[in-house]
Amino acid sequence: SWKENKLIFINMNLEELVKLLERKYGVEIEVDDRSIFNYHYDGTIKNESILEVMDLIKITLPIDYKVIGQKIHITKKF
What we know:
Layout: E1 7-13, H1 14-25, E2 28-31, E3 40-45, H2 50-60, E4 63-68, E5 71-76
Parallel strand pairs: 2-5
Antiparallel strand pairs: 1-3, 4-5
């Protein structure tokens, strides 16, 4: 998959995914509730922007996010 510039996530916890997204997209991501890091995500990213990736994660996990300045803030949905 790396030859095709694809990232594939299988049961990756959100803490690892946040670190990977920060490196890949050069953004800073803040998480308000550390329990969010216990969520796991499966998916594939090819040429999506960081906002497209965040929208996909938002659809599949009980989180919300907003961009404030140069940071992405992730919060837990209730």
